[in-house]
UniProtKB/TrEMBL annotation:
Keywords: DNA-binding, Transcription, Transcription regulation
InterPro entries: LysR_HTH_N, LysR_subst-bd, WH-like_DNA-bd_sf, WH_DNA-bd_sf
Species whose genome carries this gene: Actinoallomurus spadix
Record family assignment: Belongs to the LysR transcriptional regulatory family.
Sequence ranges assigned to domain HTH lysR-type in this UniProt record: 1-58
CDD domains named in the record: PBP2_LTTR_substrate (cd05466)
A Pfam family assignment: LysR_substrate
Name of this protein: LysR family transcriptional regulator
UniProt xrefs under PANTHER family: LYSR SUBSTRATE-BINDING, TRANSCRIPTIONAL DUAL REGULATOR HCAR-RELATED
């Protein structure tokens, strides 16, 4: 058994197919498959079983992957400690930083936080894991597939949360729709809204917000294609609830605050266990920018 085999097994568990795992690790798929077969032969167990076009962990495989994640985290932590410069300065780390994010907040992570962090941590490998909502973020963190996650707060108490910023949720409506600024929350009652498709995590979170506000809008357009939302507003199909800072262009639409304001807190979360030095550095960096 070696670390390379453990990394291959964990990657296959994360990606669901050996082909996708090999692509993510930049190795040939036959080499990855052979290494996993050799490990199964050595251990005398079956780690994966066929599931449709992919593979799924067996019960024994799930247990082994949990231990493999712990082993790889320990190795990465040891590597980071040994590569830290004299005096404990955080710059110059090596290792891997795995950050999960909800789909809504991913642009914040990939366009701002990670590029700024990477300028001072050029030896760190960064992997972003996209999650459909807070529940998926929690699952990724608990399973050890990510070190940290950017998400809306609050989260369940078994996760450690570090608030970064408060974000204003605003109403984006067609320019032909006359609404005063700020608008009363009650204006949403019966309003035609552009909403995520039903059944998904983003729709569930929006429905929970609307229930908390005590309003019942009408779903005019239901789509998970975020790129279509603003064009739908401009076309007059409905209005949209979104973070103010993510409205890239206001041409052809009207942006209104609410009275009282609707605020959401975003933050980084992680499992209640020690972070790797690289993850700890990123947490400190993000809180300083928050």
């Amino acid at each position: 058994m070696n670390l390379r085999q453990l990394r291959y097994v964990v990657a296959t568990a994360d990606h669901g197919t050996m082909t996708a795992a090999a692509q993510a690790l930049f190795v040939a798929q036959p080499a990855l498959s052979r290494a996993i077969r050799d490990l199964e032969r050595e251990l005398g167990v079956e780690l994966f079983a066929r599931a449709g076009r992919g593979v799924a962990l067996t019960d024994t495989g799930e247990e082994i992957v949990r231990y493999a994640r712990d082993a790889l985290r320990a190795v990465d932590a040891i590597t980071a400690v040994c590569s830290a410069p004299a005096g404990g300065r955080p710059g110059g780390r090596t290792g891997e930083l795995r950050v999960a994010s909800t789909l809504t907040l991913e642009p914040e992570l990939t366009a701002r936080l990670l590029p700024e962090f990477a300028r001072d941590q050029q030896a760190v490998r960064v992997r972003v894991i996209r999650c459909d909502g807070r529940d998926a973020v929690g699952a990724v963190i608990r399973d050890g597939r990510a070190d940290l996650a950017l998400t809306d707060l609050p989260v369940p108490g078994d996760l450690a949360a570090h608030p970064l910023e408060q974000r204003e949720i605003v109403l984006i409506c067609p320019s032909t729709l006359r609404i005063r600024d700020p608008a009363p929350v009650a204006v949403l009652d019966g309003m035609r809204l552009i909403m995520p498709a039903p059944g998904g995590a983003r729709r569930a979170e929006l429905d929970a917000l609307l229930t908390r506000l005590g309003v019942a809008p009408v779903a005019a357009v239901e789509s998970d294609d975020r790129g279509s939302w603003l064009p739908s507003v401009r076309a007059g199909r409905g209005s949209l609830l979104w973070y103010r800072n993510q409205v890239e262009a206001a041409d052809g639409v009207t942006v209104r605050s609410f009275a009282p304001p609707i605020m959401a807190t975003i933050g980084l979360v992680h499992a209640r266990r020690p972070l790797t030095p690289v993850a700890r550095d990123f947490l400190v960096f993000a809180k300083s920018r928050g």
